[in-house]
Every structure is written in C-alpha cells, then in structure tokens.
Write a structure and sequence with these properties.
With 493 residues, the protein is an alpha+beta fold. The protein is built from 14 helices and 10 strands. Helix content is 29%, strand content 15%.
C-alpha cells in the first residue's frame, strides 16, 4: 500500500501502468522510423480519434448546472409524487439549456428555441421534464419531426442554412404559426439562459393517492426577469462571444449569483378536457391562464457548475419517458413519439448503458435484469440471475405503482389527418391574440422586422408562391399582420 501511495502522481496508461515517455515516441535510432510496438502512442492517438461522441441531432450545443428544487406549496391533492409530498422538501437536480438547430460550434445568440431539460434525482427514481423556453411547438405529431428538423439544418446541396426550406415548410403547415410568431418575436433570442422561462410544453398527467387523474402543464418562470436580445445586438454578440450564454451561466453561479425559477402548474380535470373548446393535448396551443390559473409548486435554484463539461453536460441524457409515481403521460401525439425517440437517441449516441453514467444515475437502487452491452460500468449484476422470475433473489413487483386505467375514446385505429377534426383546425385564434392583445407596439415592430428579413431570404423560383401562402396564413390570424409583412417585402398582396 505504501508503494502504491508513493506512485500516486506518476503518469500511467489507461491500464494503470507507469508511462516512462509521455511526449516522445519509441523509434529506431534518434530519427526514426517510429515503432508500432509503442503501445502508449497507439493508445493515445486511438483515444484522441474517439474523443468526440456523435453530437445530438438537435440540442447539440448546451450549458448545464446542478441545483435543488424546494417545495413551497402543497399540491398533494393532485400528485402523490414523493418530491412534492412535504412543503420545504428539497430534491437535487441537473438542468441543461440548449439551442435546438445549431451544431456544437454554433453561437449561443442565434434565433432559435431554447431547450430547457431538468432531471430531478428524486427518492423514487429520476423524473425528466424535457421542454423548451416556449409553451408551444411547431408541430403536433412526431411523424413530422424529422422533416421539420431537416428544414432547420443545412440545405443538402449548399450545406448552408436556408430560410427557403424553413418558410416553405411553415407555409405548408399552418399549425406552426403560433410557435413561428414566438420564435420571430423579441422572445426569439433570450439574453441569457437565466433570463427566460421554461415549459414542459406538453400536457402531462398527475395522479394522487386516490388514483384520481388530472391533466397538467408545467411552467418554470424565471425570477431574474425576462430579457431578450434585439436582432442586431444578437448578431454582434454572435461574433464577439459565441459562447455568451455558457459564459454567463458559469460566471453567475461561480460568483454566488444563483439563478432561480418558480415552478407553477396548470390543472385541467378530465371533465373539463372532454368539453374543452379545442384539443387540450395539442402542443401547438396554450391553455388560457384565466380559465386554468397558475398554481405555485416550488422553486428551482441552480448553485453548482459541473467540474467537467463532457462528463455531465455532454453525456446528460434526458428522456420524457422517465416518470416517477404520481406523474405520467397524456394522449399528446407529439409527446407519445418522444417517449420512444429520446431513449433511442441516447442508446445510439452514448450506448445501451447510458443510465449508468454518473450524471444520469438515479440516487435510488436499480434492480433489473438488463445485462451486458458496451460501456457497462457496473458489476453487471454480479452472479445474480439475469432473468425473471427466478428462485434465487428476492426482487418483487409492487402493484401499488400501477397507473390507473385510462379510457380510450374510440376502438378504431387509423392514420388520422393531422388536423384531427373540428377542434384542431383553428391554428389562427391564439396567434392572432398574441399579435393584437399580448404584444406591445415595440414587440409588434420587432416581429414584423424579423419576418420581413427572414422571408426576404427566400431564394427560389417558387418565392412568390411561398410568400403568398404564408401571407394567407398570417391573414387568418390578423389581417394587419399580413399587410405589414407584405408591405415590408414590397409584395403585391
């Protein structure tokens, strides 16, 4: 033991053996050639070639921090989830903020939705609330997601981002209007991650100790106040400091200026949902606050920056399918697709055992029969059985965690039109209200400026067709919106 302690500071290879020459390759004579038998040279170069794991297809560039969630209000009549069961109870968490469309090297201050993903390390397993800084999304069926993201990435011919693709897709999918107007508004470029709200966006369910189910929306409201970049200022910052938001988060927390958000929920009963004026599971729409007021739950405070970015922020794996008892899914079609897609993405990017990584590991025991796979960093179950049922261990199923049955409206499976019927066909009322009643004059001016600028970049022989189609969409929300955009584009409408 004393000999081992004496060698604590000696450089070794990955197998723990001391390395006598760290910078110089083994050669034939002082000038070479280099010998293949220099094992550490091969190890060092081989590892270097593999330092970059595949980046996320979306949300590739992000920032993260550890923190704590503290309950400030009793919501146990809605949810039996253990993290909510006592006022003052604290639960550790990890959060990752991100841009959506850009690659890892892109700027933090681009016009793009911001990811807002929170992993709660509860005493009953991990709960991942994986949302954005907007309460709605562009589409409401996951089958359209790959097509939508393709329009936000690079043109397959030029390998450049192209507003033609984006506006072509949006104009053909009027359900995107609500999110497009938020993206193109002053809220489209948050000043920092600390100065934006976060939303679960989807409708989820909560279950209480009587097995009563309600539908719920989650809102994280920033306590630092909303602050956003104007378009020109954001462009300048992209060149001056493309890592502005990452740097701001690190600096704020390390100097003790801990950012916080108040978690609030909206609650809708099954009866209210059945009789509501639109589909409450449509992620392109919001629930009116005057009908479903915000109810405070607690406060999330971020207080520690990870010691190693790659080990935590880059390897953090959030999945909407990670629920805990008392919180569950809904019929939201976009959410239903995400229940599969996120776990599958992590298995591809990080391997089948990504949940074993420290940042993803729950604080509770993991008792399962999954074994083997690349990068298994546990004891792989030791000598215990890898099948169930068996006669040798005492692991059992607890039926008290069973979800209550959810009735299905119809007994017909079909490929339903994306509009989904009369309740889903109104893509225009809420965007119109946003433009006329929620935005002030300056915000409307900023929106028009960005719409004109981005639509002016449409570059195709179908330019007039795309612009006309999008103006028709705007006009159904608000005729003045369409007129002002047409005037800015000098387009005869």
């Amino acid at each position: 033991m004393e000999e081992k302690d004496k060698n604590l500071n000696i450089i070794t290879n990955a197998a723990g053996a001391p390395v006598p020459a760290y910078e110089d390759s083994q050669t034939v004579g002082p000038h070479g050639p280099v010998l293949l038998q220099d094992g550490f040279l091969i190890e060092k170069l081989g590892h270097f070639n593999r330092e970059r794991i595949p980046e996320r297809v979306v949300h590739a560039k992000g920032s993260g921090a550890f923190g704590v969630f503290k309950v400030t209000n009793d919501i146990t009549k809605y949810a039996r989830a253990s993290l909510f069961n006592e006022i003052g109870k604290e639960t550790d968490l990890f959060i990752r903020f991100s841009t959506v469309g850009g690659e890892r090297g892109s700027a933090d201050t681009v016009r793009d939705p911001r990811g807002f993903a929170v992993k709660f390390y509860t005493d009953n397993g991990n709960w991942d609330l994986v949302g954005n800084n907007t309460p709605v999304f562009f589409i409401k069926d996951a089958k359209k997601f790959p097509d939508f993201i393709h329009t936000q990435k690079r043109d397959p011919k030029t390998n450049c981002p192209d507003m033609t693709m984006a506006w072509d897709f949006w104009s053909l999918n009027p359900e995107s209007l609500h999110q497009v107007m938020i993206l193109m508004s002053d809220r489209g470029i948050p000043y920092t991650y600390r100065n934006m709200h976060g939303f679960g966006s989807h409708t989820y369910s909560m279950i209480n100790d009587k097995d009563e189910v309600v539908w719920v929306k989650f809102h994280f409201l920033t306590n630092q106040g909303i602050k956003c970049f104007r378009n020109d200022d954001a462009t300048l910052m992209s060149g001056k400091d493309p890592n502005w938001c990452q740097r701001d988060l690190v600096n704020a927390i390390e100097k003790g200026d801990f950012p916080s958000w108040t978690l609030k929920i909206q609650v809708m009963t099954k009866e209210q949902a059945d009789n509501f004026k639109f589909n409450p599971f449509d992620v392109t729409k919001v629930w009116p606050h005057n009908e479903f007021p915000l109810i405070e739950v607690g406060v999330m405070t971020l207080n520690r920056i990870p010691d190693n970015y790659f080990a935590t922020v880059e390897q953090a794996a959030f999945a909407p399918s990670n629920f805990v008892d008392g919180i569950s899914y809904s019929p939201d079609k976009m959410l239903q697709g995400r229940l599969f897609a996120y776990q599958d993405a992590h298995r591809y990017r990080l391997g089948a055992n990504f949940e074993m990584l420290p940042v993803n590991r729950p604080i509770t025991n993991v008792n399962d029969y999954q074994r083997d796979g690349a990068m298994n960093c546990s004891d792989n179950g030791g000598s215990s059985p890898n099948y169930y049922p068996n006669s040798f261990d005492d692991i059992y199923r607890d039926p008290t965690y069973k979800l209550p049955c959810q009735p299905i409206d119809v007994a017909i499976a079909d490929f339903y039109d994306r509009n989904g019927g009369e309740k889903d066909e109104d893509f225009y009322t809420q965007p119109g209200i946003l433009f006329r009643d929620v935005m002030n004059d300056d915000q409307r001016d900023q929106l028009i400026e960005v719409l004109v600028n981005t639509m002016g970049q449409i570059n195709t022989d179908k330019r007039d067709e795309i612009i006309k189609r999008q103006l028709d969409v705007f006009a159904k929300a608000d005729i003045n919106l369409a007129k002002r955009v047409a005037m800015g584009l000098k387009f005869d409408y």
